[in-house]
Amino acid sequence: MEKIYSSPETQCRLITSRPETVKFLLDYSRSLHMREFKGMTIEQNLN
Fold it and tell me: Residues of 5-38 as b/e, b for ≥16 C-beta within 10 angstroms?
């Protein structure tokens, strides 16, 4: 483990996302609702 994490990372690159991907994820998160019912958590995707 020490050999893996002790060396510094020399090559880093920024990852960019397309606006369509961001819009899709935001729309999905807006439509997802969590409900509590009798001690259980229920996920609902409201389309």
Answer: eeeeeeeeeeeeeeeeeeeeeeeeeeeeeeeeee
